[in-house]
Design a protein that fits this description.
Blueprint: H1 2-10, H2 15-51, E1 60-65, E2 77-78, E3 99-105, H3 109-118, E4 124-130, E5 134-143, H4 146-160, E6 176-181, E7 193-198, E8 207-208, E9 211-215, E10 217-223, E11 229-230, E12 237-242, E13 251-256, E14 263-268, E15 272-277, E16 284-290, E17 304-305, H5 312-320, H6 327-334, E18 343-351, E19 378-386, H7 393-407, E20 411-417
Parallel strand pairs: 19-20
Antiparallel strand pairs: 1-9, 1-17, 2-9, 3-6, 3-8, 4-5, 4-7, 5-6, 10-16, 11-12, 12-15, 13-16, 14-15, 18-19
């Protein structure tokens, strides 16, 4: 509107008339223009707010040495609390090839893949020093899957709590190897293990010890505050968990001890969480608390997440639950995550299934498809370019292909780097 009146004024040649008309228009229409612009902005904001998802359940991850972990921080926590404990050797499990620990190899996925092919046939020599003797031992290496089991548990809780699943980006957890003892040992009474050393030959230069993966999830046991009360449907019961002050801004997933008919519905209020269940007994609940970061937390070194870039289209599609099945939608999905911004999707190709080598791996193998099998699926090959190739680039690609596969389950999504 302002541009329109300015154009009309500029065409008046008499300067006195132009000045007079300008003053009249300013007096008559400036308030109207200001009000109209404010109302349009309010309508725009309301549309965005109505499509905004209240609970994003963004998962933030990183990896640090044990010595660098701050136990009093309020944002990142170990995926496995045992990683912080002093190693204790289970002597009773010696006949079962016990685990001696884990090693972290910060290598590219393809390099780890080549190493993994040789591990089943390899044994590494080492020494196990105790309080009474030094034993010569042999050990084997194999990929460690314990952290992926944690993510699978997280997926199950998403289903139980009726929360939409989003692939977790934690590239470092796929680079751990567990050490298994291959030598049978007999210990004397009161003999204690003091030190274990292993010669990994050419792999020794790549290993890192005492590394722990972190994420923004903290678990906490919780009991009902009072007895369950009948729900509005007069069939189920509501269990009330009252929050402490510092817990009121967090998101929650509920892990119950109910073997049958767990959580049917959850409702978060300002100071409490109300759980609807078919059980009418006082229950023990386990909260998985998802901590939202402060602005300063986002500057943590090597921090990654599955957080999406804020956009109206993403909120609208997520709320409607409808997938737009176009090439453009695939490109939108590939460009919608904060941590994968250095990757650019440049090509999408659909082809028949073939036994070919691909540069990515699936992160959601625990998401079962009971309608289609891999043999029935065509290949959707996604080609990426990267601003800079690092040891985590192909892990980022695997995250994107796994997330896109959730939207296009009839295809097996794979990736390659150009």
């Amino acid at each position: 509107m302002k541009e329109h009146w300015q154009e009309r004024l500029s065409k008046i040649e008499d300067l006195d008339e132009r000045r007079l008309l300008r003053d009249v228009l300013l007096a008559a229409f400036s308030n109207i223009e200001h009000y109209t612009d404010g109302q349009l902005e309010a309508i725009k904001q309301r549309v965005f707010d109505e499509n905004k998802i209240d609970h994003q359940f963004d998962i933030y991850t990183t990896i640090v040495p044990v010595s660098a972990y701050d136990p009093i921080n309020d944002f990142l926590f170990p995926m496995n609390e045992d990683d912080l404990k002093e190693f204790l050797f289970d002597k009773a499990a010696i006949g079962e090839k016990p685990t001696l620990g884990k090693l972290y190899f910060e290598l590219d996925y393809l390099e780890l893949l080549e190493i993994g092919k040789t591990l089943p046939s390899r044994k590494f020599k080492g020494q196990l020093k105790t309080s009474q003797a030094t034993h010569e031992i042999e050990v084997s290496l194999s990929p460690y899957e314990g952290y992926m089991k944690q993510i699978e548990k997280l997926y199950e809780l998403h289903l139980e709590n009726n929360v939409a699943w989003r692939t977790v980006l934690h590239p470092s957890i796929h680079k751990f190897m567990e050490i298994r003892l291959e030598t049978e040992l007999t210990f004397k009474k009161n003999e204690k293990i003091e030190e274990i050393t292993i010669d990994l030959e050419e792999l020794d230069v790549y290993k890192q010890i005492n590394q722990i993966p972190l994420w923004n999830i903290k678990t906490k046991p919780f009991n009902n505050q009072g007895f369950p009360i009948p729900a509005g449907d007069r069939i189920n019961y509501e269990h009330v968990l009252i929050f402490e002050e510092e817990m009121r801004t967090l998101d929650y997933l509920i892990d119950s001890d109910l073997e049958i008919d767990g959580v049917i519905h959850t409702r978060k209020e300002i100071d409490r969480l109300v759980l609807t269940s078919s059980k009418d007994v006082i229950s023990k609940w386990h909260l998985w608390m998802i901590v939202n970061p402060l602005e300063t937390d986002l500057n943590i070194l090597n921090l990654t997440s599955n957080r999406k870039i804020e956009s109206f289209m993403d909120h609208f599609i997520s709320r409607s639950g409808r997938a737009v099945r176009t090439i453009g939608e695939i490109h939108r999905l590939a460009n919608s995550f904060v941590s994968t911004a250095p990757l650019k999707l440049v090509d999408v190709e659909i082809g028949a299934k073939q036994d070919a080598f691909y540069e990515t791996y699936a992160l959601n193998l625990f998401v079962k498809d009971y309608i289609r099998t891999d043999d029935d699926k065509k290949i959707m090959k996604l080609t990426f370019t990267a601003d800079e190739i690092t040891v985590f680039t192909r892990d980022m690609m695997s995250f994107l292909t796994s997330e896109i596969a959730l939207y296009f389950p009839e295809y097996r999504c794979v990736g390659e780097l150009r």
